[in-house]
Amino acid sequence: MKRQLLFLLALLPVLVSAQVGDLPRSTPAQEGISTQAVINMMDSLLALPECDIHHVMVVRHGKVVAELHPAPFRALDSHTLYSASKTFTSLAVGIAIDENLLRVDDRVMAFFPDKRTCPVSDNMAAMTVRDLLMMASGVKPDWTMRNSSTEWVRDWLAKPVDYRPGSLFQYDSMCTFMLSAIVQRVTGQTMLEYLRKRLFDPMHITVVDWESSPDGINTGGWGLRVQAETMAKLGLLLLNKGNWNGRQLVCARYVEQACSRLIDGGAKDTVPPTDGNQGYGYQVWQSKWPGSFRADGAMGQYAVVVPQADLVVVILGMKLYGHEELACIWNQLMPGLYDEPLNPEKQLQKRLEKVCANAILPLPQGKKGKKMHKLLQLADNEMGLVQIELDFGIAGNTMTVKRAHHDTETFVMGYKDWKYSPVAGLPPYSINAINRMRGFNAGFTDAAAYAWPSPSTLEVRVHYVDWISGTTYMFDFEKNMVNICDTYPNSRPDTITFTVQ
Predict the structure, then answer these.
(1) CB 184 within 8 Å of CB 217
(2) Using CA atoms, how far apart are residues 80 and 210, in angstroms rounded to an integer?
(3) Contact (CB, 8 A) for 238 and 135
(4) Which among 27, 63, 414, 459 has the fewest CB atoms less than 10 Å away?
């Protein structure tokens, strides 16, 4: 008994930091969802081509009825949200409005008199907070500015405003960054600091960090890193119009507006209609299912809310284009919803639990191989890698990658299993902004596995489980070449020759 108590005490900090299991749990049938419909949706998601599913949560009537975290991803792992971060930024604006710190009709330039570097045009002078919220600033999106500028506020305000603010939807993450800058200007705190006491703490969201710009402002439009259950909480907060367990965290009227169609978004003439052209609110997308809306981020980060069904679905993963994940909700899950609880579906429930428990991302295929040690000296390459050391021994299997400037990373590799290890450096990232990943205080964790497809070829796969990306290494020892490719869709692989030392 004493040993068990000591174990639980030692585990307590992990459980607190893990912050999973906060929401009540139930079964699909108890909450009026066909268990088979949930199974069908999970199977469809896992079968999507060129797509890695990392986390799925289905919440009905405020209860989690199913969750899927394919290995090596785990419920406790954080995930970067890309543009789904924007919805949290909108909530920060809503809270600041509640506190009379700003209004949606306030002029953007009024917040930054010290950032003016050129005469202010009539359109720039007319731009309001509402225009930023609706992605209708009138400024032509420039997705490369953040890759070269160190003063994003100043340089963005110096851009020409080609269209009358509020008249044209032009999706631009810098609009959301400017909202973050405004919140920081009126509160004297970064948006993360501001939200911590007003939103995150009341909702018991403790595992959270947010990327920052070179001038120390949370990026707003991207860069938030949270757990899947936090996204489920976000969905419930929106579903309940800003109310969390009886406490109004954000003004109900603001949340209702944010989740409404306020401006046309996307190619509205597309036939048939898609989830990308249903309209936009305050940093919230409208969805194809009537009355539904979502937080939406690149590579497939979604918190989908269907108010009429009292339903929230979270999907986090890795897919570049399209809304095929959303189609799995509409086509597989929604037809299985009912107004009343269903009879217990014990056999189907066991099958669902088995699907969720056994889900795993593809492992390298091949043989285990023999004990060996190789030191590979790499030719010059764009990735900046100089050396790879492979060690398959009694104590374990490791791959150590040395980069220029003496950065070194060691991966512990499993065979037919994922092995976890802390990451000393940073995982691959599709955003090349200056000071990228600044603001991530927590380190990263990788999971790696290997196999020998043939006696002369070795495959190593790495996933960064509290991020999004990974890297695959394919070694050919007959040709003394290694092909290295990050797992972002459309990533360009690099084939590097090496000499064995």
Answers:
(1) yes
(2) 9
(3) no
(4) 63
Alpha-carbon gap, residue 187 to 101, rounded angstroms: 8
CA distances from 79 to 15, 52, 155, 224, 391 (A): 18, 13, 30, 8, 30
Tokens found for residue 480? 């003394």
Q: Which residues make Cβ contacts (< 8 Å) with residue 97, sequence separation at least 6? A: 103, 104, 251, 254
How are beta strands 444-454 and 408-415 bridged, if at all? parallel
pLDDT of residue 394: 76
Cα–Cα separations (whole angstroms), residue 228 to 34, 165, 234, 287, 460: 23, 35, 10, 20, 27
Per-residue confidence (pLDDT) for residue 266, from 0 to 100: 66
Report the DSSP beta bridge partners of residue 366: none
The pLDDT tens digits for 108-118 are 999 999 998 88
pLDDT at residue 435, rounded to an integer: 87
CA distances, 135 to each of 67, 155, 201 (Å): 33, 18, 29
Residue spans of the chain under pLDDT 70: 1-18, 266-273
Q: What is the pLDDT of residue 269?
A: 56
Overall size of the chain counted in residues? 501
Cα distance between the two ends of the chain:
54
Reading the block at residue 327, the tokens are 């189609």
Please state, in angstroms and rounded to a whole number, the distance separating the CA atoms of residues 235 and 238.
Answer: 5
Residue whose tokens read 């090349």: 432
Query: Using an 8 Å Cβ cutoff, are 242 and 249 in contact?
Result: yes
DSSP character for 114?
A: G
* CA 301/CA 299 separation, integer angstroms: 6
Of 456, 458, 460, the residue nearest 477 (C-alpha): 456
Q: How many CB atoms lie within 10 A of CB 282?
A: 27
Residue with tokens 């919805």: 87
